[in-house]
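seq:
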Amino acid sequence: MPQISQIGEIFASQLFWLAIFFGAIFVVIGLGMLPKVMSTVDARDAKIAADLKSAGGAREAADALEADYRAAMDKSRAEAAHLSAEAKASAAKASEAQIGAAETAIGAKLDTAMKGIAEARARALGEIETVAAEAVQELSAKVAGLTVDANAARAAVARELTHA
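struct:
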């Protein structure tokens, strides 16, 4: 086989060209491109680390702001509840005062009305006694033909009204 016999002749030249291409590739990639890629990777890693550090600081600041916000909201809620309770108590006192004044006014009106009713009842009873006494006088005169004294008729009517 002629291919096998040529190996010795071409093997050295192939090794030579392999070393030249390997060296060229090493120079171009290893010395030219790789440092640029590595510096880009290092810069990116540094940027990510800086961003993570600033994000951690921002998160801590946000947590502190949130804690302050929650404390302020709790304080505001407590103050609002206190003001609401004071307003309710004040409104209750004002309502009680108004109710007391209204009850006093109603009591005075009720007393006045009861006195008026009692006076009207007394007048009505007096008029009923007078009318009944006159009716007794007229009836006894018409039915029995008797004349009854006005005082005797009033006494008889008063006696019957108290027993009835």
